[in-house]
Amino acid sequence: MHIVIVTGMSGAGKTTVLKILENAGYHCVDNLPPALIGSFAELCLKPDTGITQAALGIDIRGGIMFSDFFTGLDSLKNLGLTYSILFLDAANDILLNRYKETRHLHPLAKDGLVSVGITKERAQLEEVRAKASYILDTSFLLPRQLKIKIHDIFSKDAEFNQFKVNVISFGFKNGIPNEADLVFDVRFLPNPFYDPELKPQSGLDPDVRDFVLRHEITARFMESLLNMLHMLIPHYIAEGKNQLIVGIGCTGGRHRSVALAQDLHRALTQRDQTADVVHRDIHREEYRKEAQKKD
């Protein structure tokens, strides 16, 4: 039996992910005290339960009991069971807006500011995040997109140890993605932002993509990046990692980083490397304008 531990930042979508996994055939339990992980697993192993895969939602709502997190995982190892840790994350401003929209209280800020609670939670979850099998940023994922990603990771036909490269484009002015293992600054490349015809477009549009990729310095950079990843990936696999998150950043996260992230994803898949791409900030301005209208 394999057990998926769903954890991460409050407001990042753990409840939604558990519902997705439940619909996929997982036996799901939310807000289980970590000290009971072993007891739960023992119950699942009893004859005739019919449980072959389970998902547990565990987070800081358990308060002081959350300190038993790694002890609970050790109990799974002692039972000879395998597990994966799925850590859900989102940008601080996105989490803050979600709390504002739902009017929920943050578990660590019931008598204070939500932003303070988010900061405390990040500090408490730092070690858990570092040991996660998968880190998924839900900042700008629609429910259907989240469902696709979860099914992609935990498909019944897929092996849990399949290594995956996740490419994230972003804008430095909005902060570096917290989940990135490697970050590359491409602000040295010619910027289509200053072309009046290209400025309204994004790196997904052919004209912008062609502008960014046609320069010799871009080709040299991409060749060096692919060679480096080709060298690094086997070593990450040897260390037991299931994924590598590569951040590609430009100023705003709309033109250069998007075009290069798309090209990197294409090149990786052509080499038969499982890969995914997310453009974190491509619609950031639209989201910001919508939020201002609501306020």
Q: What does this entry look like structurally?
A:
- The protein has a 5-stranded parallel beta sheet, with helices on both faces.
- The protein contains 11 helices and 9 strands.
- 42% of the residues lie in helices and 18% in strands.
- The protein starts with a strand and ends with a helix.
- Helix 1 packs across helix 7 (143-154) and helix 8 crosses helix 10 (256-270).
- The protein is globular.
- The chain has 295 residues and is of the alpha/beta class.
Question: Which helices and strands occur, and which strands form pairs?
Answer:
Blueprint: E1 2-8, H1 14-23, E2 27-30, H2 37-44, E3 53-57, H3 69-78, E4 82-89, H4 92-102, H5 114-124, H6 126-130, E5 134-137, H7 143-154, E6 164-171, E7 182-185, H8 206-213, H9 216-238, E8 243-250, H10 256-270, E9 275-279, H11 284-294
Parallel strand pairs: 1-3, 1-4, 2-3, 4-5, 6-8, 6-9, 7-8
Helix pairs in contact: 1-7, 8-10
Low-confidence stretches: 156-161
Largest sheet, strands/sense/barrel: 5 strands, parallel
Helical/strand content category: alpha/beta
What would the average pLDDT be, to the nearest integer? 88
Q: Tell me the series of helices and strands, N- to C-terminal.
A: EHEHEHEHHHEHEEHHEHEH
Q: How far is the first residue's CA from the last residue's CA?
A: 48 Å
Strand order of the largest sheet: 2-3-1-4-5
Cα-based radius of gyration, to the nearest Å: 21 Å
Percentage of residues in DSSP E strands:
15-25%
> What is the count of helical runs?
11
Helix percentage: 40-55%
Q: What is the total tally of β strands?
A: 9
What is the 3D form?
globular
